[in-house]
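User: I'm putting together notes for a lab meeting next week and I want to include a structural view of one of the chains we've been expressing. I don't have a solved structure, so I'd like a prediction I can at least talk through. The sequence is below, exactly as it appears in our construct file.
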Amino acid sequence: MVDVFESVSASKETEVKINELLDTRSIFELVFDIVNASGFYNQDENFNLIKALNIDTNGANFEDALFATWVTMGENLNTAKTQEEFNAKFALFVPIILKRMEAINRMSA
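Assistant: Thanks for the context. Below is the predicted structure for the 109-residue chain, given as structure tokens.
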């Protein structure tokens, strides 16, 4: 999980670019595979949380939707009081971030 933030924070730019976020896709996919294998996403409570966090971006373009989700994820992660809470919050956002990235990839294909 730290790899995602190190990848993005390595930029010399003051503002994160969409390509920098998209470059973290392989890390998100790996995390998704690990978390999915644990059964975390199959728990009703977690599934319902993911659905609730799947922010409706009403007409926003796909890039804006990814940025909005990324910012919301960061705000939520900053409230974590333990490593376990951080990991769980991050895991909840992984499928949403991947969904946003896939929408951008489909658009550019």
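A couple of points you could mention at the meeting. The first helix runs from residue 2 to 9. The CA atoms of residues 82 and 88 lie 10 Å apart.

User: Perfect, that's what I needed.
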